[in-house]
Amino acid sequence: MINEKLSEQFSSVFEENIGIVIKISRAYTTTFHDREDLVNDILLELWKSFKNFKGNSKISTWIYRVALNTSLNYKRKKKNDSLFYLLNDFKHVDNLSWIIEQDHSEESEILYKCIDELNEINKAIILLYLDGNSHDEISEITGISKTNVGTRIGRIKEQIKSLSISKF
Amino acid sequence: MELLELQNIWNQYDKKISENIRLNKGILRKMLISKTEKRLNRIKVEAGIRLIISLLFVPTILMFNIQIRTTVDFYIGLSLFAGLFILACIFRVKFFLMAGKFDFSSSVSSIKKEINELEKYQLKMLRLGLLFLPIGAISIFLFAKIPFLTQETLIPLILMIIILVASFFYKTKYSYKERFRKLNQEIEEIEELEKG
């Protein structure tokens, strides 16, 4: 009964915030297959920590943290455990295909190409910035001091400017 | 391209996502409850199997028809083997517990730091494992009474020791050292970012 109530709550939280998961998973993966895999991983981590979520922070902050941490760890895991992943039959998840929208517009491609050029931390910062999070919120999610968040955003702006000159 | 232009593209993209995704609650429920629970259980089972495989190592050694003898070499070999085996099990369990303790709802920098610390611990474990591997092999030879100083076994044994020593030297001197340096550097960078 409790479990059912909990899963009901989780379903609606996930439904409301699925955009965050999709945008982050797209930034940290290159193929559709990997994206499915990463969304699965994020979902698992969200479900694991949902029971312990006490509401000390905003629900979106919690989702951002879990999604970003899982994405950063996903690459590492893939690098180290490629054989394990090859043998893992959870790769065959057909239920997710409907959930991951397949927008391949030129604009979104350019957007992700720009983001892809940034390092892991800067990528996380810019994703949060583009999603409309304040410097305070970015600092809370990433653990980076507010001053450093501001400095980094300034540098990223410059980097994006030079990237667009050289690439697009 | 300015950041503002990216912001506009992002907003359009965000709008598209919310418009395009029509969530089917039935499928979502199925996916969340059954798939995720199954996956969680599978992870637990895999961890258990890994532990059982480690424990199965003892009966495998015992299959060599080892006879209990009241000789010094038997006791030295047995105590060395048991000591190393228990130590290896402790390290494995500790590593497993450390890896399972991650709370992904903590801040990105703290998780990154914890993962780096875990990698450092794993590297230390590998280095120690490599260091104690010849001792472990000798202990098995001793308590299982496998003659290793005969004409037939001497050359393969020497070759084995040379390869182990060379591998240990190479990994400690270059590979591990470089990885340790990178991990420490990353930890320092994260601490700098946190300080501000």
Mean pLDDT of chain B: 80
> Helices and strands of chain B: which structural class?
mainly alpha
Count of discrete domains of chain A: 2
| Global morphology of chain A | globular
How would you characterize the overall build of this protein?
The complex is a heterodimer of chains A (168) and B (196). The N and C termini of chain A lie far apart (55 Å). Chain A has helices at 2-28, 32-50, 59-80, 82-87, 106-116, 120-130, 135-142, 146-167. Chain A is built from eight helices and no strands. In chain A, helix 1 (2-28) packs across helix 3. With 196 residues, chain B is mostly helical. The mean pLDDT of chain B is 80. In chain B, helix 2 packs antiparallel against helix 3 (72-100), helix 3 packs antiparallel against helix 4 and helix 4 (108-143) runs antiparallel to helix 5 (151-195). The interface between A and B is large, with 60 and 45 residues.
SSE blueprint and pairings:
The complex is a heterodimer of chains A (168) and B (196).
Chain A: H1 2-28, H2 32-50, H3 59-80, H4 82-87, H5 106-116, H6 120-130, H7 135-142, H8 146-167
Helix pairs in contact in A: 1-2, 1-3, 2-3, 3-7, 6-8
Chain B: H1 3-20, H2 25-62, H3 72-100, H4 108-143, H5 151-195
Helix pairs in contact in B: 2-3, 3-4, 4-5
Describe what is shown at a glance.
In chain A, helix 1 (2-28) runs antiparallel to helix 2 (32-50) and helix 3 (59-80) packs across helix 7 (135-142).
List keywords for this structure.
heterodimer; A: 168 residues; mainly alpha; Rna Polymerase Sigma Factor, Chain: A; Arc Repressor Mutant, subunit A; 2 domains; 8 helices; 75% helix; globular; B: 196 residues; 5 helices; 0% strand; elongated
